[in-house]
């Protein structure tokens, strides 16, 4: 539905949300496509990050990575929740979207030298050379930036090669050198300065900013997960992940935080897909009224059915003493009601 009209109030709300979340240490961000992305978050105990606010958004610079967000006219926020592998948890996301034509990026399918990265968020790297590795995604570029002479020779010798061409072996050189990685879209960029994780070399995924590349997922040529309710004709260019009320940044369980929970529910009220909030409210009311789950009508849409399951998981924290809650979980969210007190991932 590329003809969706975004009101000035919606665009203004998106900008206000971005600017407020830039200052929130618990918020995480990601930018990418299905199979490749960069993530930015802050790590407890690190030196304070530098935050800069601009008329169209803002930026965060830390020693591990950086984020720049520019909110264009016509951006549409879509707020949604997802099912976690933990029986008592869920995920929270706001995707900032643009119509596909407005979202278009380089769409290069081979390794391409782009010249000095004048938009680098580290001022001393603005003369370093930027390369698009050529994933061909319509709405984002995955790049590396370096001035390392050895890596530059590898990259320039492989220019014009597909990124996973075994004869080029350029990705092995990139992994060995761990240059700065940049994912960028029409809403901004995430830069990652930390090493690339490697099972073979025993380098784990670092806390805070990092990148992922999954060639097997990239082959699907999808722009985003089917679980993300992005409107038809639109593309997600940046994802915000507000602090979770039930798990910390490392995925560990923590005491339920009602304030964080209510903050995201308010975002859902404004930006959730049609019918999602209503389904959650109806399920919650039915459980409280002790309606047998077998009598509850199945929701028509996939998003609404997921909302019913998530509402029940949230009631484990907001209404833990509801008499029929475990029965509802057993019927609508298979296995969730049988996990007892075990909350480990």
Topology:
Layout: H1 8-22, E1 28-33, E2 36-40, E3 50-54, E4 57-61, E5 65-70, E6 76-83, E7 90-99, H2 100-103, E8 112-116, E9 129-132, E10 141-146, H3 149-157, H4 170-177, E11 180-185, E12 188-192, E13 210-213, H5 215-218, E14 234-241, H6 258-271, H7 276-288, H8 302-318, H9 325-332
Antiparallel strand pairs: 1-2, 1-14, 2-13, 3-4, 4-5, 5-12, 6-7, 7-14, 8-9, 9-10, 10-11, 11-12
Helix pairs in contact: 7-8, 8-9
Portion in helices:
25-40%
How many angstroms separate the termini?
38 Å
Task: Report on the biggest sheet.
Answer: 8 strands, antiparallel
Beta-strand residue percentage = 15-25%
Q: Which structural class is indicated by helix and strand composition? A: alpha+beta
In the CATH hierarchy, the architecture of one domain is 3-Layer(aba) Sandwich
- The helix/strand series, from N terminus to C terminus, equals HEEEEEEEHEEEHHEEEHEHHHH
Count every helix, treating DSSP H or I runs of 4 or more residues as helices: 9
Q: What best-fitting shape do the alpha-carbon axes yield?
A: elongated
Mean pLDDT: 91
Strand order of the largest sheet: 3-4-5-12-11-10-9-8
Rg, nearest Å? 22 Å
Number of E strands: 14
Question: What does the model show?
Answer:
This protein is an alpha+beta fold and about 350 residues long. Among the domains are: about 140 residues, Heme iron utilization protein-like fold, CATH 3.40.1570; about 60 residues, no CATH class. It has nine helices and 14 strands. The chain has an eight-stranded antiparallel sheet with strand order 3-4-5-12-11-10-9-8. A six-stranded antiparallel sheet has the order 6-7-14-1-2-13. Helix 7 packs across helix 8 and helix 8 runs antiparallel to helix 9. The longest helix has 17 residues. The C terminus is likely disordered.
